[in-house]
Design goal:
The complex is a heterodimer of chains A (about 230) and B (about 170).
Chain A lengths: L3 H10 L8 H24 L9 H6 L1 H4 L41 H4 L1 H9 L4 H10 L9 H13 L21 H11 L4 H10 L5 H13 L9
Helix pairs in contact in A: 6-8, 7-8, 9-11, 10-11
Chain B lengths: L2 H20 L2 H17 L1 H5 L4 H14 L17 H7 L8 H13 L4 H12 L4 H8 L3 H14 L4 H12 L1
The chains are: A mainly alpha (about 230), B mainly alpha (about 170).
Chain lengths: ~230, ~170
């Protein structure tokens, strides 16, 4: 009889072949890290208050400047966790060439209030899909951020959205508790795991996760953290 | 070791780890790309670590556990593409490669687990780490690791003998 321990191992090892092509992934890593370096420089120059124009756009628009179907993702690539949820690139902000990226406007800047209102109210990507359905709007990757912006504006105008936020702790379907909202706020602000490690040391937290929660709590309250992301 | 040398040598292994961890090819790619892009920016610091690979694998795990965006919505498969569909299409008849079929079925059931439960099983049975090491990586106590594992195995409907053994470990 085959041991269940072996069965699990077999299940894992027999699916290793699903791993994406390393060469394609590496090419994409190089593009992404270049964007990160630009963004870091932008943050340093701007004192960490405003992202350099177009640098986040560079991250956002990478799929549009890479060859189609790269890495087998076929456009399914999402914005990296360190970058905030973002509006989809419209023709006016799409960067046709990487050399033009630093001059492109940052779409986040224009709708930051709407995004903050949307996410701080506990709404997320899945909710945007539901809202799009209610409003009979498109919900594909090119349109979903327009839904978030519209929803954010509704909230700013004091209107109630027709969908309950997934992250609402009062919701019957509590899939994302308050802690996760705080962690999300931490990542949305551009902080990452290494920053959490650093904060955990500074704040004498037992784990980086606790630092993410504490950091997210501060950010939601409008406070700043001891250092920039 | 430069970042490039590291990537050339370790990227295939990292991708295998990520796909086993996430159970999703696209998500594995997203997670590894995101992690390596950050790692490259901070490579000087990472290369000073005792084991840069362990550091990066930890980053992959944390990225997976804290991944914000739901991938379930965009993880749309064509009919017949999913292993479960293939399994169903066989109509449960005996297959010469029964072991492969069983592994596929178990892989599908693994997809129903929560992220932490899945991660614990991957770290225990794929990475072959002990519960103390897993607890350190996941950021919880060893007892919580055992609890995650026990619940995961119950969900997977693995045999009582195995569950009993897990139970005995918990009691010890």
């Amino acid at each position: 009889m085959i041991d269940n321990e072996d069965r699990l191992r077999e299940a894992f090892e027999s699916h290793e072949h699903l791993a994406p092509d390393a060469e394609q992934v590496y090419a994409r890593v190089r593009e992404l890290s270049r964007s990160y370096q630009w963004r870091r420089r932008g943050l340093q120059v701007a004192g960490g208050t405003v992202l350099g124009a177009g640098l986040v756009a560079g991250v956002l628009n990478l799929p549009s400047i890479l060859p189609a179907g790269q890495g087998g993702n076929d456009g399914a690539m999402v914005a990296p966790a360190a970058a905030p949820q973002t509006p989809s690139p419209s023709p006016s902000v799409r960067a046709p060439r990487s050399s033009e990226l630093p001059d492109e406007p940052n779409p986040m800047d224009a709708h930051q209030k709407q995004y903050d209102a949307y996410f701080n109210a506990g709404y997320d990507y899945d909710d945007a899909v539901k809202l799009a359905k209610k409003w009979k709007l498109k919900s594909d990757d090119d349109h979903i951020d327009a839904v978030k912006i519209r929803a954010g504006q509704w909230l700013l105008d004091g209107k109630k959205l027709p969908v309950r936020p997934s992250n609402d702790p009062d919701s019957a379907d509590v899939t994302t508790p308050k802690e996760e909202q705080q962690v999300n706020a931490f990542f949305r602000a551009g902080y990452d795991y290494d920053d959490a490690v650093r904060l955990a040391k500074m704040w004498k937290k037992a784990t980086p996760y606790e630092a993410k929660i504490a950091g997210g709590k501060k950010l939601i309250a409008g406070e700043s953290l001891p250092f920039q992301p | 070791m430069t970042f490039e040398q590291f990537a050339v040598a370790r990227l295939p292994s990292l991708l295998r780890y990520a796909v086993v961890l996430t159970g999703d090819r696209d998500l594995a790619q997203d997670v590894v790309q995101e992690v390596l892009a950050r790692a490259q920016v901070k490579w000087r610091r990472i290369s000073d670590a005792d084991s840069p690979e362990a550091y990066v694998r930890r980053m992959v795990l944390n990225e997976y556990l804290s991944w914000r965006r739901s991938w379930a919505v965009r993880n749309v498969h064509a009919v017949g593409e999913r292993l479960v569909d293939l399994d169903d299409a066989r109509g449960g008849v005996n297959d010469p490669a029964q072991g492969v079929v069983e592994a596929d079925a178990l892989w599908n059931r693994l997809a129903t687990l929560g992220r932490k439960q899945r991660a614990v099983l991957v770290l225990r049975y794929y990475e072959q780490l002990d519960d103390e090491a897993i607890a350190d990586l996941v950021g919880c106590s060893p007892a919580t690791v055992r609890s995650h594992a026990s619940r995961a195995l119950k969900t997977l409907r693995l045999s009582p003998e195995f569950a009993h053994r897990i139970h005995a470990k918990e009691a010890s």
